[in-house]
Write a structure and sequence with these properties.
It is a peripheral membrane protein. It comes from Streptomyces omiyaensis. Keywords: ATP-binding, Cell inner membrane, Cell membrane, Membrane, Nucleotide-binding, Translocase, Transport. It is found in: Cell membrane. InterPro entries: AAA+_ATPase, ABC_Ni/Peptide_Import, ABC_transporter-like_ATP-bd, Oligopep_ABC_C, P-loop_NTPase. The protein starts with a helix and ends in a 57-residue tail after the last helix. The radius of gyration is 20 Å and the shape is globular. A six-stranded mixed β-sheet has the order 6-7-8-3-9-10, sandwiched between helices. A four-stranded antiparallel β-sheet has the order 2-1-4-5, with helices on both faces. The protein has a domain of about 220 residues: Rossmann fold (3-Layer(aba) Sandwich). Helix 5 packs across helix 6, helix 6 packs across helix 7 and helix 8 packs parallel to helix 9. The chain is built from eleven helices and ten strands. By secondary structure, the protein is of the alpha/beta class. The chain binds adenosine-5'-triphosphate.
């Protein structure tokens, strides 16, 4: 990539920030552990999400995807420290107090499909009761129409009407997942964070759920899809952000990422090569411990393209953080 193209990409990034529903800069999360150790769960994440856009955040287990989502909603545990900014409609989510987040952000401005839905459902209430209560809390639907609104939300998330009167412990993982998606859709929030919304679903339900989430974004809302499921991401994402060891190492338009050109970061290429319908070749080795990250590029020990340059950490430049990307940046 030459300097002109890199400059043009930077200009696109600036314009994207201006029009964004969500604009994240330098988002960093550290967990302080007993004994003085620190977990560098998220480091310096920068990204924007535009109205009508689906951004898929992908990466191996433990790379920091869910922590990033929890940081945006103020749901981190007490041993977490955050830095950076995350702007939604003039509110910095990282600086906002619990009152603001509870009253005007969660459910209203940002809907969440949580990663472990069963843990978010109250054990003594049926799915119908959860849905109706959420309709009451987040919408102006009159009492007489709440039952129908709850049933419609269930239907959008492919949650079967036959199980609406079931309690959380009676649901399979896939049903709990669909209940959580239905709950997240109710508030019609301009921004939806969906953390592994297709876990535990059969392929046809994966497609149905992904398509429903996509429809949500098509109406001018934003969707941050956090997923291991690259097939679901390929189906609905406009852009892809790849995370490794707490850092976003590449952002790319989905058509380029999944198309013939492919991504530029060796880790992102490795993720795609690991897919059964591609080379089916796993990336060798394991990600580093986030409490013991190397000084330089965290992927270097597993990287086929690593050289001495990789002893220093690469900055994110023109969409990729790598000293030796597939297509070099100027
Ligand atoms: N409360 C905590 N204290 C210390 N470390 C934590 C805490 N919560 C999460 N972590 C660590 O933060 C890192 C990122 O976790 P996260 O759940 O965000 O990963 P992920 O990419 O979402 O993976 P998965 O898809 O498996 O959930 C992990 O190393 C995890 O162990």
């Amino acid at each position: 990539m030459n300097a002109r193209v890199a400059r043009a990409l930077d200009a696109v990034t600036a314009e994207r920030a201006e029009n964004a529903l969500l604009s994240v800069r330098g988002l960093t999360v550290r967990f302080r552990l007993r004994g003085g150790r620190t977990v560098a769960a998220v480091t310096d994440a920068d990204f924007d999400l535009a109205p009508g856009e689906c951004l898929a955040l992908v990466g191996e287990s433990g790379c920091g995807k869910s922590v990033l989502a929890s940081a945006l909603l103020g749901l981190l545990p007490a041993n977490a420290e955050t830095a950076g900014t995350a702007l939604v409609d003039g509110t910095d989510l990282l600086a906002a107090g619990e009152k603001t987040l509870a009253r005007s952000v969660r459910g209203r401005r940002i809907g969440l499909v949580p990663q472990s839905p069963a843990a978010h459902l109250t054990p003594v209430r049926t799915v119908r009761a959860h849905l109706e209560e959420t309709v009451r809390a987040l919408t102006t639907t009159p009492r007489s129409r709440r039952r129908k609104a709850a049933e419609d939300a269930a239907d959008r998330a492919a949650f079967p009407a036959t199980h609406l009167d079931a309690y959380p412990h009676e649901l399979s993982g896939g049903l709990a997942q669909r209940a959580a998606t239905a709950l997240a859709l109710i508030g019609d929030a301009p921004l939806l964070l969906a953390d592994e919304p297709t876990t535990g679903l059969d392929r046809d339900l994966v497609e149905r759920t992904a398509d429903e989430l996509r429809r949500h974004a098509d109406d001018g809302r934003g969707l941050l899809l956090i997923t291991h499921d690259l097939t679901a991401a390929a189906r609905i994402a406009d852009r892809v952000a790849v995370m490794y060891a707490g850092r976003i190492v590449e952002t790319a338009p989905a058509h380029r990422f999944f198309g013939a050109t492919g991504p530029d970061h060796p880790y992102a290429r490795g993720l795609l090569d690991a897919l059964p319908d591609r080379a089916f070749t796993p990336i060798p080795g394991m990600p580093p411990e986030l409490s013991d990250l190397p000084e330089g590029c965290a992927f270097a020990p597993r990287c086929p393209r690593a050289t001495d340059l990789c002893a220093t950490a690469p900055a994110l430049h023109a969409g990729v953080a790598c000293h030796r990307p597939e297509r070099p940046r100027a």
